């Protein structure tokens, strides 16, 4: 039997994302530093080009540490952001009582096993969308494909190929079909609509962790979970049950630190989203990244509340 529905975050919490983007974009327009950086471009100031940061060589003369592409948080947090999300997500499933199979009754085990499977399924769904959008979609990722479909190309690299007169330029050009290969070849990825991968990934990862953490946290705070931990404490005070006591103590530490890890990733993710909103991309590119991420969140976390058949498959965190 599954537990009764618990308070889950209202979809209204998702408003935090447009608010962050709005504040960041407004700051980028109002702040003399941000405007000064942008106006130093040889490109027209408006509309801000998709490859603005690349064109401005921001990392070479940063107006602000967070405007540098090589800032430590970008390199070791956002650029491997899905790994951070995965570790934080896994820590919830491993250490939160909502999922913990040890010292649980048979019925609790069944509920928790189902919850764990559904949590894994939600992670798989989100990972598949992330992967198709940013890494691979039967070749270049969807973000790269949409950029090219809207007229974007690898500008300088194309010129170089033409100037040097390479024997088979078409072969060269085929390798310029992603932003990464284009930039690696010294080209400029410009001309089309470049959905912000950072906005997409940061919104999806932080929203997902928020929904999961609130769901798991609600179970830990519910009366039935409290009764369980009381039971564990009684066993722990029993000298014949010392090993059970160790498990209870371990899970207490794990539970606390998994939540700290999750909220640490979420808060840093929100901060980096704010930085992206200030220093990178056009308004439209930020909003399109946001729209794709929120649509994914809607399907995985909001739709199951309205569609029982879908809820039976993907579940609701903590239910
Ligand atoms: C039709 C069938 C499709 C099947 C698809 C299945 C997908 C399965 C994928 C399995 C992958 C497992 C992932 C495991 C988790 C990881 O840890 S991946 C390794 C860490 N890598 C990252 O976190 C990369 C994150 N970075 C990005 O996504 C991008 O850099 C960016 C932040 C979006 C920015 O992109 P830029 O190009 O720098 O602008
Ligand atoms: N918050 C941030 N901090 C540093 N660099 C950022 C950033 N947000 C976006 N960028 C950089 O801006 C470019 C476009 O990002 P995206 O399309 O993913 O939103 C990427 O450059 P590189 O691809 O040259 O690293 C990315 O690293």
Task: Describe the 3D structure.
It contains 15 helices and two strands. It has 319 residues and is mainly alpha-helical. It has a domain at 67-152 and 196-239 and 255-314. A two-stranded antiparallel sheet has the order 1-2. The protein binds the ligand CCCCCCCCCCCCCCCC(=O)SCCNC(=O)CCNC(=O)[C@H](O)C(C)(C)COP(=O)(O)O and adenosine-3'-5'-diphosphate (A3P). The site of the ligand CCCCCCCCCCCCCCCC(=O)SCCNC(=O)CCNC(=O)[C@H](O)C(C)(C)COP(=O)(O)O has 16 residues, from helix 5, helix 6, helix 10 and helix 11.
Instruction: Summarize the main sheet.
Output: 2 strands, antiparallel
N-to-C CA distance: 10 Å
Helical proportion?
55-70%
CA radius of gyration is 23 Å
Strand order across the largest sheet: 1-2
In sequence order, what are the helices and strands, one letter per element? Answer: HHHHHHHEHHHEHHHHH
The number of helical segments is 15
Poorly predicted regions are 1-5, 38-59, 226-250
Identify every distinct bound molecule in the structure, by name, code or SMILES.
ligand LARV2P2M, adenosine-3'-5'-diphosphate
Indicate the proportion of strand residues.
under 5%
- The coarse overall form would be elongated
- Mean pLDDT value: 81
Structural class of the helices, strands and pairings? mainly alpha
Oligomer: single chain
The beta-strand count equals 2
List its traits.
mainly alpha; two-stranded antiparallel ribbon; elongated; binds the ligand CCCCCCCCCCCCCCCC(=O)SCCNC(=O)CCNC(=O)[C@H](O)C(C)(C)COP(=O)(O)O; binds adenosine-3'-5'-diphosphate; Acyl-coenzyme A diphosphatase SCS3; transmembrane helix; lipid metabolism
């Amino acid at each position: 039997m599954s537990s009764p529905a618990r308070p889950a975050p209202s979809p209204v919490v998702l408003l935090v994302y447009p608010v962050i983007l709005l504040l960041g974009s407004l700051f980028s327009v109002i702040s003399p530093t941000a405007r000064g950086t942008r106006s130093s471009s040889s490109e027209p100031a408006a509309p801000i080009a998709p490859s603005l940061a690349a064109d401005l060589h921001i990392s070479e003369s940063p107006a602000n540490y967070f405007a540098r592409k090589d800032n430590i948080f970008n390199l070791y947090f956002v650029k491997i952001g899905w790994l951070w999300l995965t570790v934080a997500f896994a820590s919830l499933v491993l250490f939160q009582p909502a999922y913990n199979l040890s010292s649980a009754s048979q019925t609790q085990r069944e509920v928790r096993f189902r919850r764990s499977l559904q949590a894994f399924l939600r992670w798989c769904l989100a990972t598949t969308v992330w992967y198709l959008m940013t890494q691979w979609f039967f070749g270049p990722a969807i973000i790269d494909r949409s950029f090219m479909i809207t007229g974007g190309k690898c500008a300088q690299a194309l010129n170089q190929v033409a100037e040097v007169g390479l024997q088979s330029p078409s072969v060269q050009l085929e390798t310029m079909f992603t932003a990464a290969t284009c930039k690696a070849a010294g080209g400029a990825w410009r001309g089309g609509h470049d959905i912000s991968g950072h906005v997409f990934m940061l919104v999806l990862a932080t929203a997902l962790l928020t929904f999961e953490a609130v769901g798991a946290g609600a179970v830990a705070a519910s009366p039935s979970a409290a009764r369980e931990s009381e039971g564990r404490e009684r066993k722990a005070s029993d000298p014949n049950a010392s090993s059970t006591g160790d498990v209870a103590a371990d899970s207490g530490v794990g539970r606390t630190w998994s939540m700290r890890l999750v909220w640490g990733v979420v808060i840093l993710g929100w901060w980096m989203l704010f930085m992206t909103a200030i220093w990178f991309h056009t308004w439209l590119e930020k909003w399109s990244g946001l729209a794709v991420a929120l649509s994914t969140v809607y399907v995985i976390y909001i739709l199951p509340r309205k569609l029982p058949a879908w809820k039976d498959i993907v579940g609701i965190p903590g239910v």
